[in-house]
Specification:
3 helices; single chain
Length: 75
């Protein structure tokens, strides 16, 4: 069963906190992105297809807020 938007929002809040820690611990993009992708991929896999565009927009906004250059998903 896919999580509701409320649960996804809580997961996004946790991811936002993780971004802060990852940026501090891994300021180099080559170290940051693989670690971030694991977390974001897991969240995307748990979401319903109808929520994925919403999630991607929220994740992109969080990355911008933290000053992370690049975008998710990684291609």
């Amino acid at each position: 069963m896919n999580p509701t938007r409320l649960r996804l929002q809580r997961s996004l809040e946790a991811l936002d906190a993780e971004i802060s820690m990852l940026v501090q611990a891994h300021p180099d993009a080559t170290e940051f992105w693989p670690r971030f992708a694991v977390l974001a991929d897991e969240l995307m896999q748990r979401s319903a297809p109808g929520d994925q565009d919403w999630l991607l927009a929220r994740i992109g906004a969080m990355l911008m807020t933290h000053g992370v250059s690049g975008s998710y998903p990684l291609f």
